[in-house]
Amino acid sequence: MSRISMEQVKHVAHLARLAITEEEAKQFQHQLDQMISFAEQLNELDTDQVNPTSHVLDMKNVMREDVAKPGLPVEEVVKNAPDSKEGYIRVPSIIE
Amino acid sequence: MSLFEQKVSELHERLHKKEISVTDLVDESYKRIGQVEDKVKAFLTLDEENARNQAKRLDDQLVKGENEGALFGMPIGVKDNIVTKNLRTTCASKILENFDPIYDATVVQKLQKAETVTIGKLNMDEFAMGSSNENSAFQATRNPWNTEYVPGGSSGGSAASVASGEVLFSLGSDTGGSIRQPAAYCGVVGLKPTYGRVSRFGLVAFASSLDQIGPVTRTVEDNAYLLEAISGVDPMDSTSANVDVPNFVNSLTGDVRGLKIAVPKEYLGEGVGEEARNSVLEALKVLEGLGAQWEEVSLPHSKYALAAYYLLSSSEASANLSRFDGVRYGHRTDNAETLIEMYKQTRAEGFGDEVKRRIMLGTFSLSSGYYDAYYKKAQKVRTLIKKDFEDVFEKYDVIVGPTTPTPAFKIGEKVDDPLTMYANDILTIPVNLAGVPGISVPCGFAANGLPLGLQMIGKHFDESTIYRAAHAFEQATDFHKQFPKL
Lengths: 96, 486
Fold this sequence. Notes:
The structure holds two protein chains of two kinds. By secondary structure, chain A is mostly helical. Chain A is 33% helix and 4% strand. Chain A has a domain at 4-42: Glu-tRNAGln amidotransferase C subunit, N-terminal domain (Histone, subunit A), CATH 1.10.20.60. An eleven-stranded mixed β-sheet of chain B has the order 1-3-2-4-6-5-10-11-9-7-8, sandwiched between helices. Chain B: Keywords: ATP-binding, Coiled coil, Ligase, Nucleotide-binding, Protein biosynthesis.
């Protein structure tokens, strides 16, 4: 019995904005189950009194002077966009 | 004999004396690529016209006797997840197949300042996710020592191009071992710097709290030269550290008398092959002979590193890779009516299986109801792993062990089993979680003729000590003087 249901797999794929086929969903269900049961060995460790590490160096709030500088030119920025017009990037309609 | 069997310092001297030109060095690169690239398949893009023009310009400078730096004119390859202005950068992914960057990564700007010559862009596992280069969307790079074997990964192209003499040296990136493991598999020197030593600006992000760019070279000395050129704080990367960049080459004294080496029992225990273990024990004898001392220690949380790493790196990757949505750059599907379908279909078409798998695992670990049990738990375990290293470094200068549990494996051998594939990285991953620097140097050959690597791990920002130890070991052995026959 998998600890992840097909519904969960499809929900996660939706959150990740990945279109998946029924076949792929089954495969991910199996592989995620394997990886998650592997990850559950971490529960052997008592970490109640341990702080999480998100970053290894002792630094925070790196600030810079708030000075305006020129950005990249618009024609360069849209150069790699799959669909653009007059300096704007075009996408399928967002509002019905 | 190939020019690239000489060190940077020797080639520099010969350029200075006008015995060779920059054009000769660049010719050497493309000539060798012409001879062996069919077999090695290390490059995704070559930049021959620009490289030859630049070589001419540098040769003009040389004639005028303009002051040239240590890396002046040296041919380099760059991993294809480091952006290069107007030179296609794909991350070995279909989603970026035609991506033409509009700026240079900080390390690339630094290479330009050092006046190296970029030969081309190197193959990798897609978005640096993999240990064999089989996850490239375009081609599988081969191990130059035996082309039926993988070169390692994800910086497989970086290691294979240097080992086969296509370039003098290269840049790779290392998130869980992606420089050190291929360096070990291909018999070259690879260093993952301390987290924050090298700017990540322009490195396409995989796991931002773990990623570092580092040098892949034939010798430790060349490695030290290249690291010095790319290091330093960068206003464009707020995680780059404001610490002095030492002259790393000056640390290569050859003297390791009194050096205190720790050998974690976990790095020679279960899951580590006989050949890897024996090569490390032999290496320790060499270091002892040079006056270093070693003792067995414990890094008790080592066995949990792999699970913590896959949760953390996949979580960070799922966030970082959300930028590939078909809007600003890269592939966009033709098969979608609505915006959300466009996102989903674009990503389904553009990403390969391993990348999708990790995005799924990462999204799951970060999703509501599972965050504390998986992501946060892994962050806490990361604290314990970091503490293991801090404890050992209170008494010792360097930690030594194998880079990988085994030599390179055959192409196709592990591709269907993610967990077995991930186990290649058990000895390199803890180093990224702790953020400390690690180097792999050649330390022998397995019975099948493939190279083995010795890993040396140092304190935060103490690359100098691991360079000193690695260099002393290298000078006392001749593994680095052997070259694959292609």
